């Protein structure tokens, strides 16, 4: 723990360890949650270090503050610890449950493909993408979008149930429709960028590396995780600030803007859409991903259900991390076979 000397205003600076961060969206969400705490002056979360720095007007010790801050982010799948707190072995014990669950899922995937249900590349890609959408909607990385959904519910609640529901529907139409259209644009860009099979192979490997990094980050075995290409935090905050504007079309625009938010899952699927290099195929990929996220986000909109606190997040994160890693390796293998390398 880093603790600065007391200032005249009795403000101290603490640095805490954070478990559960996987992408820039996690940084933004943790910062927003901790700013709600009384006495907090500033917050800066850093994925690369797996830490959060907090300036707070308080005489409480680090352990007490860590416990208080953890309560604010627990339902989103994070844990905040004082630097002196020792890591328990439970992080590794969770693999005892995660590995069998992941193996069962992958066996089902293999059976579906062998039976012919997933016997085409397009069907397999859409199946993987839909699964990634479901995982994303239950992951702390998608908690930022869930936060937007709940913020919209609160913002339009005073306008009455009809306008509130209209705003939520508008948000989801903007999100799903935006993912379809912008995914198609990615496909057009990909068509321009990959003139040869060799370039397509290289692009597939790059996308798979992104998925591997995402999967490894889900496992939570490396401090700070593995870096991913990400949107600058300042730009992300500007995009999120749209929710504060008072225009009827804002929910629609905000749904579209979620395409650009720094979620590792979205980034991985965007890479797949780029690699496909076809407007319709790429549009369907992003559309399928958005559909995968809709059931949970839809329930958040219309039933205000919080799923994060009902999950054993450690086991869930590790299970999904193993599945994502398997998908990434499968994609590399399939691409190498398709290009005659093996």
Q: Which key terms come to mind for this protein?
A:
63% helix; 342 residues; globular; disordered N terminus; alpha+beta; Alpha-Beta Plaits; 2 domains; 8% strand; single chain; 13 helices; four-stranded antiparallel beta sheet
Tell me the distance between the termini: 51 Å
Number of strands: 4
Task: Give the C-alpha Rg.
Answer: 21 Å
What's the pLDDT, averaged over the residues? 77
Q: SS-based structural class?
A: alpha+beta
Order of helices and strands: EHEEHEHHHHHHHHHHH
What are the low-pLDDT stretches, counting only 5+ consecutive residues below 50?
1-8, 305-312
The description of the largest β-sheet is:
4 strands, antiparallel
Overall shape: globular
Structurally, how many domains make up the residues? 2
Strand numbers in spatial order across the main sheet: 2-3-1-4
In percent, how much strand structure appears in the residues?
5-15%
Helices, by number, come to 13
Instruction: Report helical residue fraction.
Output: 55-70%
């Amino acid at each position: 723990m880093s603790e600065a000397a007391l200032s005249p205003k009795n403000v101290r600076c603490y640095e805490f360890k954070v478990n559960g961060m996987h992408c820039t969206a996690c940084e933004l969400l943790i910062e927003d949650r901790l700013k709600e705490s009384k006495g907090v002056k500033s917050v800066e979360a850093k994925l690369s270090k797996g830490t959060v720095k907090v300036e707070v007007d308080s005489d409480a010790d680090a352990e007490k503050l860590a416990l208080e801050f953890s309560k604010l982010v627990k339902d989103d799948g994070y844990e905040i610890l004082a630097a002196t707190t020792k890591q328990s072995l439970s992080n590794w014990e969770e693999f005892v449950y995660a590995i069998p669950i992941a193996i069962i899922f992958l066996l089902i995937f293999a059976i579906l493909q062998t039976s012919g249900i997933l016997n085409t590349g397009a069907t397999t890609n859409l199946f993987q993408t839909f699964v990634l959408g479901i995982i994303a909607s239950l992951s702390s990385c998608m908690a930022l979008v869930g936060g937007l959904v709940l913020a919209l519910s609160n913002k339009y609640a005073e306008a009455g149930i009809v306008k509130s529901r209209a705003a939520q529907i508008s948000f989801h139409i903007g999100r799903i429709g935006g993912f379809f259209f912008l995914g198609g644009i990615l496909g057009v860009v990909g068509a321009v960028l990959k003139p040869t099979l060799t370039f397509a192979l290289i692009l597939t490997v790059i996308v798979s590396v992104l998925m591997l990094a995402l999967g490894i980050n889900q496992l939570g075995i490396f401090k700070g995780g593995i870096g991913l290409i990400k949107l600058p935090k300042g730009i992300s905050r500007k995009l999120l600030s749209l929710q504060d504007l008072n225009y009827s079309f804002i929910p629609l625009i905000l749904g579209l803007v979620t395409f650009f938010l720094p979620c590792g899952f979205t980034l991985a699927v965007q890479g797949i859409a780029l690699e496909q290099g076809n407007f319709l195929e790429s549009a369907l990929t992003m559309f399928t991903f958005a559909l995968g996220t809709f059931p949970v986000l839809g329930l958040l909109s219309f039933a205000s259900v919080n799923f994060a606190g009902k999950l054993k997040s450690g086991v869930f994160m590790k299970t999904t991390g193993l599945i994502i890693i398997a998908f990434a390796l499968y994609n590399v293998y399939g691409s190498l076979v398709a290009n005659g390398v093996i």
